[in-house]
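Repro:
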Amino acid sequence: MACPLPIVCRALRTVGLTIFYYVFSIGITFYNKWLMKIFHFPLFMTLVHLTIIFCLSALTRRIMQWWTRKPRVTLSWKEYLSKVAPTALATAIDIGLSNWSFLFITVSLYTMTKSSAVLFILFFSLVFKLEEPNPFLILVVLLIAAGLFMFTLKSTQFNLEGFLMVLLASFTGGIRWTLTQVLMQKAELGLQNPIDTMYHLQPLMFLGLFPLFLRYEGLSLCTTDKLFRVSEFQPLLFSVLALAVGGILAFGLGFSEFLLVSRTSSLTLSIAGIFKEVCTLLLAVGFLGDRMSTVNWLGFVVCLSGISLHVGLKTYYSKGSGPTLRPLPGREHPEMELPLLTSREDAYDEQDEEEEEEQ
């Protein structure tokens, strides 16, 4: 039965997808922080997550292939190693350092520092000519940098080692998302669907992070009673289940981002990301006891102002004569849509829109 109010239905769908995204995005942040208090092996945890994401991505590809009756893309070894490897390495470092930092810093400091990734994404987008320069970008950079400085200046729970880890993760995150965008833009590779991208990235990410794991955690993990040298089965089962839940949350985060973008727009994801930072910080203060001074809050507001300005500029220029960023695949690329979510209502909506354009 068609909804009598299409606008209301679309609004409810957007709200539902946004909440779905928040559950995984905020959930994995607090979950990883909690897990690091009892399981001090962030690199091993990340490797487990990568394995689970790969398995779930492979399963999703099989379901999509069965549903659409079309084969999924599989890159050759030459293309795989030459095109995907740089993106996979940057992604592995970003995620690995982010999880590692939870051993040292609070969720609020992590959230604030991770927001600086916008600066590095902007920088590398200019380097790779994915975004056109404009004078307002200087103001964006100054606002985000000033906000981050104010937040860390008077922080009572500041940890230099953890802060540098997250900052380096944000830097490699800028490379990661820029290279990911370039990777998904290459039509000849056929990786426009993020599920296919996630499937191809995980093995190389695992191999890139594995040497760091051996160097810093290999010996200590083999001698811990969390996984080895267990005297009872229950602690081992708890560790395995805890790691598995984190992997499911990690896959759900990427999947929920894909759903939100494919069914709404990249602008919706950007705006949702801003409010997500606010929710994360408020939850960290309210439930984890993170302490923030007036200067910290002011710095957070200044930083969010810079991020909001950046989102506004992207929206303005994308509607003008010179788009600053390549629009994410949407209706021009129907393979981006999940076939399991394509309903008759959507088909009728698209048909009505086409008829209106013809008139």
